[in-house]
Automatic annotation (TrEMBL):
It comes from the Bacteria. Residues 5-89 form the EfeO-type cupredoxin-like domain. InterPro entries: Cupredoxin, EfeO_Cupredoxin. This is Cupredoxin domain-containing protein. It comes from Dellaglioa carnosa. Pfam families: Cupredoxin_1 (PF13473).
Length: 90
């Protein structure tokens, strides 16, 4: 029996690309976040709704595990809450 997993890559370069991440409920999920330039306040990504805070070293992918237990929309942002994105669990 294989274990399914969702994985989404997000590039950070002045904003989040993609800024909206859609995930299916009940399937474990990871977001691979890579910051590729030094623009702005994007050295940290965090979400109180999803309970994570992760530093983003330049050009070093970081894995963030996301709970998909509950359907909904969950915001994330940079360390200064100036750049935003969201995870949508369907």
């Amino acid at each position: 029996m294989s274990k399914m997993k969702q994985q989404v890559q997000v590039t950070v370069a002045g904003n989040y690309s993609p800024s909206v991440i859609e995930l299916k409920q009940g399937i474990p999920a990871e977001i691979l976040v890579t910051r590729i330039n030094t623009q702005g306040c994007l050295e940290t990504i965090h979400s109180s709704e999803m309970d994570f805070e992760t530093d983003l070293p330049l050009n070093e992918p970081q894995t963030i595990t996301i709970s998909t237990d509950k359907v909904g929309e969950y915001a994330f942002s940079c360390g200064m809450d100036m750049v935003f994105g969201k995870v949508v669990v369907k």
